[in-house]
Amino acid sequence: MDLQQLHERYELSVVTALEVLWGKSRERAGGTTNLLMTHLLDTAAVAELLWDGFLAPSTRSALDAVAGGPGRGRGLFAWLCGIHDCGKATPVHQRLWSEGAEAVRGSGLMWVEPAAVAGAKSQRRWRHDWAGGLMARELLASAGWGPEQVDWVWPLVAGHHGAFPSLRDVQEPRTAKGQLRGRGLWRQVQQAVLDAFTRELGFGGLGELQPVAVPSRALQLQLSGLVVMADWIASDERFFNGLDDLKQVSLDASRQRAAAAWTALGLQRGWGALAAPAPEAFRDRFGYAPRPSQALVVDAARSMGGPGLMVIEAPMGEGKTEAAQAAAEVLAARFGADGVFVGMPTQATSDPMFTRTRRWLEAIDADLASRVVLLHGKRAFNREWKALLENAGASADEAFEGVDEFGMDDDPYGVQHEECGEQERKAPAEWFLGPKRGLLAPFVVGTVDQLLYAATRTRHVMLRMAGLAGKVVVLDEVHACDVYMSQFLAEALRWLGQAGVPVIVLSATLAPAQRQALFEAYLAGAASREEFRAHVPAPQGYPSVTAAWLAASGEAQFHVDVTASWRADLPVAVRVMPETMPGARSTREERERLQIEADTAVGDLLADELADGGTALVIRNSVARAQSVYEELRGRFGDAEVRLLHARFTVARRADLTEESLRLLGPQTPRPPGGRLILVATQLAEQSFDVDADLLVTDLAPVDLLLQRIGRLHRHEGTARPGRLRMPKAFVTGFQPYEGREPAFVFASEMIYGRHLLLRTAAVLPGAGKGWSVPGDVPGLVESVYGTDTSLLPEAWQGAGEAAAREQNDRDRARAEKAREFLLTPHGEHERRTLAGLHYGGPTAGGDEDSLRAAVRDGDESVEVVLVVRDEADAVFRTLAGRALSVNGDVAPDLLEEVLGSTVRLPSKLTQPALELRPLPGWHGHPWLRRSRALVLDASRRARVGGATVSYDEQFGLRQM
């Protein structure tokens, strides 16, 4: 910076102070103190690169509008990012590092240490971020900014460490007596810091920067996330070494440092300004002409009058995924999105979608496939993802330790700082693979939980919004969200609607009430209203597409269209296979006997139906039932003909089994005449699971899920089938019909789904010798079961049905209320105009993956453990495969993947005793294993967890004995 100009503008004492105010200590800045002005300018320079090479066109347009017109947003954005650490020009920060504090005192800036200590003790959280919020509020107001502009800017400064305080919170503690904020000369210096920084960016002063419009809260939250992103990049000491000579500090110097960092980090945007796809684009992307329903969807995307919500309802196997991808390309081109987030119901369904998304993007541009991130907790076991990565190297987060220097990583909201160990590398850019950053990548495939986390009151939630805004969001199988998860989905849709993010929702079996709720949530956000009542037109056919957006007048506009399926309706024979239920007072022996009888009945059925060969899918509603029937079928048909898939295999084994199942029952696998294969599975196989079976045996489930399971029948054309199985058959079991009264259901099914939906689904099952026409009957069946018409149930069931409905309503109400405790915005606050106090509306969900998952999935805090083996006669621990660790469990690098692959999730009933499990002694210093709980199996592969005995083997997975 030009010292002569500084001396002409400010008093000598002020300039002297600017020369010593530090932003990063020597220890966190490569061995040389980093001046505060340096870090502010470094961050602004990074922000310029974010604008030029990362922000979506829609985001740039929105910021231009806030700043006063085209071309003005870039400067405002760089300034907003740069001022984040202005609060470090206070005693509360400058006193923390003794060497820096001595230099600051030497410049004439003083404070009374006892008063500062007293203030810090009374309000431990009042540090440089909150001080900066207070400073920004006062200095911008004194520069002539209007209160409506000041009110949205200061929370961006105060919240840049992950949580937004209220205006009351940022007031300096009284016990500090001004010694944390600073008095006298401090106030002049603080004003000079902001003024000198602003002028270095090319502005004549603070007044010149005042925005002309107040951004929506969604844009504010996105901006906040981008501020954090710029700060984290500018805190990478590999590229931003300390600079302690103010004469060498300048925006040009910072731009050079930022450019080197940007190049080295390899950060890339998505497709940038995407050209509108040509009519032949669909064939180019997917290799075939669009089917009528797919063309319908693309036409709807071209017809929408603004970014909005599109719901695609079509049967299984219709090609909804390709339709959504084609529509996403159109919407991105029309509304300035730069990437895509695809949310799937489970980790197992995310993996194949990762492959399909990469293939689609590669057809658009060969370079785009390398920019796709797979985002879920077990991605390390996805073979395609692993193939994109080199061996783990040094921790990428070590480069960012300067961000939370001097204790800023502690969490006053009950959120533990996420520590990551060794980072995955080079896929697609290392920076995106660190904690909390995954959604910032341009193309992301993950579980829907990643979207739901963005609707929770958690630290650094702004990073999630920054990752979602500027994309097209595609959500598959949304009917799988229960009433609890739906609260988070609605909250997320509100924020996305306000952010102008196009959202595409896919479902084969969407209930009308759920469709209505999705549109009302999105439109409420788009209108920035607490509630938005709209009449959503019901599609008069199937497949269908419904799209909605807000017109300039604020009125909701709808586009609804239907067409015929590309395939003729498939008649499916649906047969009830009664199963005797144990009574409430049945002994364990009686229950086991009845289970054996039920398994035997399935075995007899399959022996008959598959006598000439063929494939069968058996879906049970619980792991225990799946394991039980698998044992029977394996004994009958042998290992070569029977497979088992459920969620209690180790992650490595489950990944292998999933891949094998998709291969054996996929569209490309030839089926030899007379060949026989049976896949026994749990709910893992009911959605986004591209297998084709000749025959289905399934436990009763709510009708939408039952139809999803039936959707695995005769899925692919051209598949060779035995003569007796050329017509699809579904056998529904897991319940016992009675004459003159309601049926009885498997206990596990009632616990999972509730009696209400099971009763109504049982009522629509076809009679003997009849079936369903799929997909033609799908909408009517779903509407009937999820409707309110009590006459659906036989008269003899009416009493039980009324009781079950009351019980379900009470349960749903209680679960919805429980979910609202963790929602990002409390009820009644959706029309607030700023982010102030956003994190103070109630309890805060934990920031680690397990806590977040529990928050958005109704507290299912089941525990994951790592299985190891130790024989009493053997001194060392061993892997499941028998490879030696050590007496303390130390893991050699070449065994790390095998040990991590032995992770398995325990039943939720074992959560409390499992919480007592600890890492092995040799794991305590290991970056991946130090937080892992070890479950030590004996030589027979058994262990005690609390009062229960569990066993593990490769055939059955984890079993409770």
Characteristics:
single chain; 961 residues; alpha/beta; eight-stranded mixed β-sheet; seven-stranded mixed β-sheet; 33 helices; 25 strands; globular
Could you walk me through the main structural features you see in this protein, from its secondary elements to its overall organization?
With 961 residues, the protein is α/β, with parallel strands linked by helices. Helix content is 39%, strand content 13%. It contains 33 helices and 25 strands. The strands form 6 sheets. Strands 5-6-4-7-8-3-9-10 form an 8-stranded mixed β-sheet, with helices on both faces. The radius of gyration is 30 Å and the shape is globular. Mean pLDDT is 91; it is low at 391-402 and 407-427.
In percent terms, what proportion of residues is strand?
5-15%
Radius of gyration: 30 Å
Mean of residue pLDDT? 91
Main sheet record: 8 strands, mixed
Share of helix, binned: 25-40%
Calculate the terminal CA-CA distance, rounded to whole Å.
Answer: 73 Å
Strand runs, count: 25
Decide which structural class fits the backbone: alpha/beta
Q: Give the spatial strand order of the biggest sheet.
A: 5-6-4-7-8-3-9-10
Label the overall shape. Answer: globular
| DSSP summary: helix tally | 33
Q: Identify low-pLDDT runs.
A: 391-402, 407-427
